[in-house]
Amino acid sequence: MVLASGGYPGSFEKGKKITGLDEAAGMTDFLVFHGGTALDPEGHFITSGGRVLSAVGLGNSLEEAIAKAYEGASAISFENMHYRKDIGQKAFRQRRK
């Protein structure tokens, strides 16, 4: 899932400090990919684009993978961060038919 800057896809502010990346990196069955990130002069990750990070959960089932993605994403924070809360719901509905 994409962790996006507040205001995206419209105008958004850059330079917001990103926290929780070390914690997220240590989680089992969770990956994070950088998109709109940069380093500030002190070496901290900051936002530099609308689609800041991508959070990926791994699991033996779709349900497990989605749960891991949300768990990992909840460890990460930056001002006005947002992401969709309905990831995988369409697939769940189609399975139930």
UniProtKB/TrEMBL annotation:
The keyword Membrane does not apply. One of its GO terms (molecular function) is ATP binding. It comes from bioreactor metagenome. Residues 2-92 form the Phosphoribosylglycinamide synthetase C-domain domain. This is Glycinamide ribonucleotide synthetase. InterPro entries: PRibGlycinamide_synth, PRibGlycinamide_synth_C-dom, PRibGlycinamide_synth_C_sf, Rudment_hybrid_motif. The keyword Oxidoreductase does not apply. It holds the Pfam family GARS_C. Belongs to the GARS family. One of its GO terms (biological process) is purine nucleotide biosynthetic process.
